[in-house]
Specification:
Length: 178
């Protein structure tokens, strides 16, 4: 096996290992950020490997709210068992260490969503959600007059959603007025 083929195979095994070990659906953006920040592989090799893993049905891709999330399939787990040995022990240890640190943040990123879109020249629609087990706990849509307001709302939602949600529920249930 030539070096280029070995590198491609190693990258695919690394992706399978990471996706299996994280044990939660991970988005393309999250996976890309993690792989690039930790210099496991470059963007093009990552996207090529991921595409091939999906084509070979070793990784499942599921789209929710216009975001692709990846999980390892049973076939992918079997393939990983057969080829995990080509990954150096140091890389596996680094992946396990990184995953333990970032798993809570990935869960939070996947559960708290804030985005905005331009509706017309004077109006932006802001969508704020909290998702748990891929079901919405809350889904708020607002119309605002400026991009600055839309960005500010998105930023505050991402930083404070866990505090805002119980307050909204309390107000809607009429609690706190007694």
């Amino acid at each position: 096996m030539d070096y280029e083929s070995f590198e491609k195979a190693e990258n695919k095994v690394l992706l399978l290992y990471f996706i299996k070990f994280i044990n939660i659906p991970v988005s393309n953006m999250q996976l890309t950020r993690i792989m690039l920040e930790n210099r496991f592989m470059n963007y093009f090799l990552l996207q090529q490997g991921l595409h091939e893993l999906i084509s070979d049905k070793l990784v499942n891709s599921e789209t929710r709210d216009n975001i692709d999330y990846y999980t390892i399939t049973q076939q992918g787990e079997k393939m990983l068992e057969m080829f995990e040995g080509i990954l150096p022990a140091g890389i596996k240890a680094r992946i396990r260490e990184i995953v333990e640190i970032i798993r809570p943040a990935i869960r939070y990123e996947a559960s708290v969503i804030a985005e905005y879109t331009l509706e017309n020249e004077n109006e932006y629609e802001v969508k704020c959600k909290i998702i748990e087990n891929f079901k919405p706990l809350i889904d708020i849509r607002l119309s605002v007059g400026s991009r600055e307001d839309a960005r500010h709302i998105c930023k505050n939602w991402k930083e404070q959603a866990k505090e805002i949600y119980p307050q909204v529920i309390g107000v809607l249930l009429g609690k706190g007025k007694e």
